[in-house]
């Protein structure tokens, strides 16, 4: 939205941008209405009932049940409308569809790094297809950042030691801003980038142009060998570590009797802090990789492990190549 050629509001470039804006303007209108009504009443009554001569005494008012009911019930209804509407928009924004295309993002002082499952890696740039839900799994290599796409009306913090996620479906091809929306040090304001939304065929063409190192999972497979994970995690299950074949999505039993579902969070923890959850029947022999492996390599390893579970129900599907 532009006023006199000055952009004052970002484009509505995602499927839920209109919903977010409608809610935002509704709340803004309600607040503006009451702010103006209160300000106007203060001025109007101040003039109307000002003291005209000495010795004046105000009328005695005992209260009014209908009036008190009105100013309790009406604001309650308005607040519940905001709550219900807000909850429904929030619910939609926080739940990525199952078929979403998966991309990894890492925040680092002071840049955004993106990794596609097909192997492309970008810094402060992100290429995505239009008309397709995109899920971004976010981590941070140092402090808290916040990945913000104003035109898509979505934003999620990048938190060290944890995966967070956001999703959106971009509708209109074009270039849009990426910001960091959490103060993260000297060059926070420079931690910006551009997301380029391409028509699906152009996106496929763009994909063909890179990925020299192979897919993310293939890079993870090389790391798996380089870090000698493969010497203990044998597919046969006879190794010193559990077999990783077809484990994603399953529930494994731990030494202390607890169980855990194998997902990205558990895999991440088991690589960085291998002593945290020992699988039943195995010894705590695995070294910890905390501080020895970058966030980018970590997601490559996780993608490799996921690729060993082709039957898992919630795999992150790479874009179909045509
Ligand atoms: Cu990163 Cu602000």
Descriptive report:
- α1 (17-48) runs antiparallel to α2, α4 (216-226) crosses α6 and α5 (264-272) crosses α6.
- The strands form four sheets. This protein has a five-stranded mixed sheet, with helices on one face. Strands 6-12-11-8-9 form a five-stranded mixed sheet. Strands 1-2 form a two-stranded antiparallel sheet.
- A hairpin with a 5-residue loop joins β13 and β14.
- Residues 313-322 have low confidence and may be disordered.
- By secondary structure, it is of the alpha+beta class.
- The protein has helices at 17-48, 65-94, 200-208, 216-226, 264-272, 295-307, and strands at 2-3, 6-7, 101-108, 111-116, 121-123, 125-129, 133-140, 145-149, 154-158, 164-169, 174-180, 193-198, 251-253, 259-261.
- Bound molecules: dinuclear copper ion.
- Dinuclear copper ion binds next to loops.
- The site of dinuclear copper ion has 9 residues, from loops.
Q: Which terms would index this structure?
A:
322 residues; alpha+beta; five-stranded mixed β-sheet; 32% helix; elongated
């Amino acid at each position: 939205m532009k006023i006199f050629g000055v952009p004052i509001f970002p484009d509505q470039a995602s499927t839920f941008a209109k919903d977010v804006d409608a809610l935002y303007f509704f709340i803004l209108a309600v607040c503006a209405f009451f702010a103006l009504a209160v300000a106007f009443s203060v001025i109007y009554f101040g003039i109307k009932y000002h003291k005209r001569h000495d010795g004046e005494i105000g009328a005695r008012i005992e209260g009014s049940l209908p009036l008190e009911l009105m100013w309790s019930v009406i604001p309650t209804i308005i607040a519940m409308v905001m709550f219900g509407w807000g909850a429904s928009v929030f619910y939609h924004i926080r739940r990525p569809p199952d078929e979403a295309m998966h991309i990894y993002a890492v925040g680092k002082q002071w840049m955004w790094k993106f990794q596609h499952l097909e192997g492309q890696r970008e810094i402060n740039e992100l290429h995505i297809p239009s008309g397709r839900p995109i899920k971004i799994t976010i981590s941070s290599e140092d402090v808290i950042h916040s990945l913000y796409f104003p035109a898509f009306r979505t934003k999620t913090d990048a938190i060290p030691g944890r995966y967070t996620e956001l999703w959106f479906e971009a509708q209109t091809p074009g270039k849009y801003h990426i910001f960091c929306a959490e103060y993260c040090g000297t060059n926070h304001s420079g931690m910006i980038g551009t997301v380029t939304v391409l028509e699906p065929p152009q996106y496929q063409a763009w994909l063909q142009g890179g990925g020299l190192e192979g897919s993310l999972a293939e890079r993870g497979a090389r790391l798996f060998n380089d870090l000698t994970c493969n010497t203990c995690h044998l597919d046969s299950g006879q190794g010193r570590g559990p077999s990783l074949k077809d484990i994603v999505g399953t529930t494994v039993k731990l030494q202390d009797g607890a169980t855990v579902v194998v997902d990205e969070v558990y895999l991440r923890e088991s690589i960085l802090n291998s002593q945290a959850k020992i699988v039943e029947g195995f010894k705590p022999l695995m070294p910890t990789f905390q501080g020895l492996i970058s966030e980018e390599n970590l997601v490559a390893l996780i993608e490799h492990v996921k690729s060993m579970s082709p039957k898992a129900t919630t795999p992150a599907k790479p874009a179909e190549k045509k």
